[in-house]
Amino acid sequence: MLGGGMPELLAGNNPNERHIPRMDFLVLFVFYLTLVLISGVMICVCSKTGYLKGPVRRGTQIFSYIIPECLQRAMLRLHHYLFHTQNRTFILLHLTLQGMVYAEYTWEIFGYCQQLEFSLYYLLLPYLLLIVNLVFFTLSSVTNPGTVTKANELLLLPVYEFDEVLFPKNMRCSTCGLRKPARSKHCAVCNRCVHRFDHHCVWMNNCIGAWNARYFLIYLLTLTASAVTMAVVSAVFLVRLVVVSGLYQETYVDDLGHLQVMDTIFLIQYLYLTFPRIVFMLGFVMMLSLLLGGYLCFVLYLTATNQTTNEWYRGHQGCCPHVARPPSAHPQVYQNIHSHGLWSNLREIFLPAAVHYGGKKK
């Protein structure tokens, strides 16, 4: 059943034929990845509440004395180029990472899984998701997100109701000079006002707005699904490999020369030595699945409640425009006035033309 292309693990060799030391660096590596993920979550939470502004400012001052001034200028120029100008760097990085993952899947996992008699439909599913993902990645990147111009200004102004908190009436963009429709925002990177502005996505080199939000949502769904599918296929392959080879029943010689029964930690480490690229890719797509899955849940929540990332962030931060009010007036609190039920909210995302030309809002 198993051909000659399978490594020595299935060719009859087993761990007790040679001494293999325990690789504690893998445990440390897992601990490191966990620490990075927890730190990332903590940074997001603290940045949202503003707790990190002081430490970041003080840290920047300290590093300004350590790092040479020429290097500081170079880093600032690079940061400005990557995150504050339109460029295709992250598009190339996205396609490169995606290509590397699929190359490893095709080069090793696909062939090995065929030898283990996996279903061909099961193995081809990641390629189907890749095709759909690339289509909607392209659509998200090239579609006009909803640029506000003099030609469509009057058409877009009555589409959404002004809440007088985040979006007061009769506001003009200080850069474009145009009247700002409700839910619009000027993107400093693209240098244009975008209707129903969600965020500027560096991976797309484009804003996400009224006209391409549906493409972005499907892109995110298929990207998450492809990462999860690859993680499942890779994990099932390794598990079936261990079962077929009987590796879990073997013994090994530890650092002290004692014969030990195979345990889970050593089994993972042995698989890492035998299939380093597959195990590394499995760890990468698992972490990617967690990150993408979390972000996808957030985007689905915004979609179901008819909010944009811009509105959610400003509403929770209290970053509302300064509008002249009587001194005795109470501060206004942001409330989402645009949600009209799940199906109506989904219709607004996937059929934006019906909203803009159907006279849905006043």
Automatic annotation (TrEMBL):
It catalyses: L-cysteinyl-[protein] + hexadecanoyl-CoA = S-hexadecanoyl-L-cysteinyl-[protein] + CoA. It is an enzyme of class 2 (transferase). Residues 172-314 form the Palmitoyltransferase DHHC domain. InterPro entries: Palmitoyltrfase_DHHC, PFA4/ZDH16/20/ERF2-like. It is a multi-pass membrane protein. The keyword Metal-binding does not apply. Keywords: Acyltransferase, Cell membrane, Endoplasmic reticulum, Golgi apparatus, Lipoprotein, Membrane, Palmitate, Transferase, Transmembrane, Transmembrane helix. It comes from the Eukaryota. The keyword Cell membrane applies. The chain crosses the membrane at residues 25-47, 120-139, 216-243, 278-304. It is found in: Cell membrane; Endoplasmic reticulum membrane; Golgi apparatus membrane. Its EC number is 2.3.1.225. The DHHC domain is required for palmitoyltransferase activity. PANTHER family: PALMITOYLTRANSFERASE ZDHHC4, ZINC FINGER DHHC DOMAIN CONTAINING PROTEIN. Belongs to the DHHC palmitoyltransferase family. This is Palmitoyltransferase. It comes from Equus przewalskii. The gene is ZDHHC4.
